[in-house]
Each structure stands twice: as C-alpha cells, then as structure tokens.
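Appendix B, example 12.
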Amino acid sequence: MKFVLKYIKPYTGRITLELFIKFVGTIMDLFLPYILAHIIDNVTPTKNVKALVLWGVIMLICSALALICNIIANRMASAVARDTTRCIRRDLFTRISYLSGSQLDHYTVPSLISRMTSDTHHVHRTIGMLQRMGVRAPILVLGGIIMTLALDPALCLVLCCMMPLMTVVVLMVSKKGLPLFDKLQRSVDELVRVVRENTTGVRVIKALSRVNAEKERFNEVNTRVMKDERRANITMALTRPSTSLILNIGLVLVVVVGAHRVNAGLSEAGSITAFLTYFTIILNAMISVSRIITMSSQMIASANRIEEVINTPFELDPIPAAEVKENAPAIEFENVTFSYNKKRNNLENISFTLEKGQTLGILGPTGSGKSSLASLLLRFYDIDSGAIRINGQDIRELSHAELRQKFGVVFQNDMVFNDTIEGNIKLWRDIDPEALEKAVNVAQANFIENAGGYEAQVAARGANLSGGQKQRLLIARALAGAPEILILDDSSSALDYKTDAAMRAGVAKNFAGTTTIIIAQRVSSVRSCDKILVLERGQALGLGTHEELLKTCELYREIHTLQMGEGEE
C-alpha cells in the first residue's frame, strides 16, 4: 500500500478538495432522514402548511447538494485514479526496458505483460473506488450511528452490538482472500503466456494440425484461472452476506425493541421511521465497505507484483572506470566464462581480439553459444569471469546508452514493427536520406521499390514480407546508423548465396571502418572473414583464418566438407 501512496502523494491537494466535496455531499445525505423525522414528529402535528413546505424545500436543497457534490467528487476521483495509474504504467514500462537478460528470464514476458495490463487495471479501479466510497461509506456508517444515537440511544445500543461482529468477519475474510488473489494473478500470467504463444505461432499450429491440442491446452489453463478466480471471489463474497445477515438481525431487534418503546411511550413513530432509514443507509454502507475490502485485497496483490518489478535493482550499472590501454584492439574477449543457470557453463574461457575494421566469423553447431557471445558483448547479461573490452575499455564501465550506440545488430529472431519500410529502417533515429539509401543498397534490399517504396506499410512481425526480404530490411536497419561494431546473427540464412556474397562485399567496401561479427551456419558466409571462431558446447575449438582452420580444426573441416563438398576450398 505504501507503494501506491507514493504515486498518489503528488495529487494530495486535488484529493483533499475532492474529499471535502464528498464529505459535504455525504453529510447532506445524512440530514435527510433526520429532517423527515422532524417533519413527522414535530411539523405535521401542528398542521402548519408553510412550515411543512419550508422543510420540504430544505430537503430538496439537501438532495440537490448531495447529488451535485457526489458527481463533482466522483469526476475528480476518476481523474486522480487515471493520472496515478498513468505514472505507475510509465515507471513500470521504463523499468522493464532496463531489465537485464537474466531478470527478464526470471519474470518472463507473459508475467510482465500481465503486470502492465491487468495488475495496473486493478490498481486504477481500486484507487477510484477508495476515493468514491472509501470516504462516503465510513462517514455514512459513523454518521448514521451518531444520528441514531441522537434520535434514540437505546435503539442505537442494539446497532452498536452488531458492529464488532461485522468487523471480525471482514478481517477474517480479508486475511484469507489476499493470498488467493496473488495466486489468481500468477494463473493469469500463465494464461497470457499460452495466448501469446498461440497467436505468435498460429501458422505453425495450423500447418501441423495442432489446433485441437492447443485448444485443450488453453482450456486447461483457462479452467485453472476460472477455479482460482472462483475460489478468491467466493471467499471474499462471504463478507457481503455475512454483514447483511448481522445487520438484518440487528434490524429485526430494532423493530421489536422500537415497537415496545413506542407502545410504552418512550419513542415516537417518526424517530423509528428515521432510525430504520439510517439502518438501511448503514447496511448499504457496510456492503460498500465489504466491496472496498475485496477490491483492496486484489489491488494489494497486484500492487505488490508491480512494486516487485519497479524496485528490482539494476544488475548492469556501470562500474568505476579504469585506465584505458593505448593502441588497444577494437574488441577483446579475455578468458570469458558465462552461465545462464549458474550451474553449467554455456561459454567457457573464450578469448580473441579484433582490430578496428576486422571481421570475425563465428561458426558452430546449434546451441554452441554463438548468440550468447553476442549477448555478452552487448551486455544483455554480465559475464561470470574474465573481461570484455571495447577499444581497451571494459564494457562494464560504459553506460547502457554509450555502449549500445556503438552497435548495429541483426538478431536471430529480430522484430519488424507495424510501420512503413522507412520507419522500420530508421527505427525512430535521426538518419539522413543518403545514409538510408546507402544502407538499403548495401543490404541488397532492392525489393523496396517493387513493394511500394519507403512509405509501403509493413505488417507486424513482417508477415507480408518473405524471409529474405525481412532479413535484408533488418540488415539495412543495422547499417543505417553507421555503427562502430556490426553484429549479424544468422542474418543471411534466408538469402541465396549470390545475395549473401554481394551483401558481405558491400559491407566490406562501404563500411571498411566497422568491426564486424558474423554468426552463421554456413562456411560460405564466414570463409572470407579475417578471423573465424569455431565453438562447440561453449568452448572454442579453433580460431584463425579459413585456410588455417582447415588444417588445424577437425570440426571446421567436417562442416566445410559437408557443406562445400570433399576437396573443395
């Protein structure tokens, strides 16, 4: 709750004004039964029509003030809830953007989506409800008790005996409900994951005739969410009937005791009528309180999940800078070891250097650690031991912005956005037309003209592009910023040999000062590189030129023979 209060604090002035207006409106509501009792007991017996009309007008004024004040206060409450939730979403999105790779793996993308959407919705809904009913309901309860005490202390004593019972019920149910809502949100995370996988992989599912199997998997998760939601809601729903039962028992006792007191001449009929009205007001207010408690339990569970992400410490903060070596290589890996699960090493004792403008090819079987090496260079993850340096400076000494600005990257499963071709290449960067045209030509993206030019629309994830067109668009994006370091992670797998060779030749000619790392499955994509690193199971089996590796590295020779043919070089 402290987490939410921190975001509400900037709106204290607005909330104070809104609560004052809400208070005035609620007091007007409380006066209505009291005025009615006065009319019945004191005005009507006098048969004074003017006095009757006067008090009727006063009731109308109180009703109008109550209506106007409540409308104004509710609009202000909605605005505060809207602005508060906007700030929470902004900070949550910003924090997610700076999570390290290991932190993203820990939370998972579906869980982060759920926290950004359903959890923030619960917070938004409850903040609004607390302002609208969180003040009104307690005032109606306390004000109703005070008014009934003024009307008839003996009957008020009956009502007061019911309050401790209701308090115990509400507290017990709330204690049980909070863990259930937390479990419900974890089930929603799983539901988001399944939906996300099915929408992303819908073509594969249809192609392999797995629609029915996926429907069963979805139904299983959906049923689990339904059961968790039912269990949580049933538990919290006990509050409303329990409080209603206790208050209605009190109401019966009030009617019985009130009848005896009227018969004995100790109370008047108007007072009993007003008392029953106040009792109804208190009953509805207690129902509202139980609803607030239910929603607050759900909000607390959601707020805790949001706070967990926002308060996640930065894993990849820059460390103090050390002295930079002169004439240092552009990229240097020194005995780098890394593990995702900290149990088995995914990369072990990797060492190599690259001078400015040189090209490194990385080759190896699937799962050998090729993409992991690129992730470490970009500092998506921190290494376990060793050092990675760029121009002699440890990458851990650089800020994220300073480090990432050095790179142009095409990832193995890269993202194409629902935007124009030009928008996808520029990616909201300030790139001049000459640089854009140069990048497109080097990337061999000659399909753009036939596709409708730079203003042609690209579907989300490049659904309206072929695999080769998508890869050439992504390569153009990486080159458009004239990067200091270019990483091409299996970015030419969908290109034919001629286009692949032309693209690599264009990079070598037009971006001669760019240090390039090419991660590939084909020997033809890396054979012309200045250095080739051969990986298997996270270990370096060979490092050298194409000719050197053919002589010294058995795995490279085997891959070359399988792909290029026996005896071909």
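The chain has two domains: 2-310, 331-564. The first strand starts at residue 331 and ends at 338.
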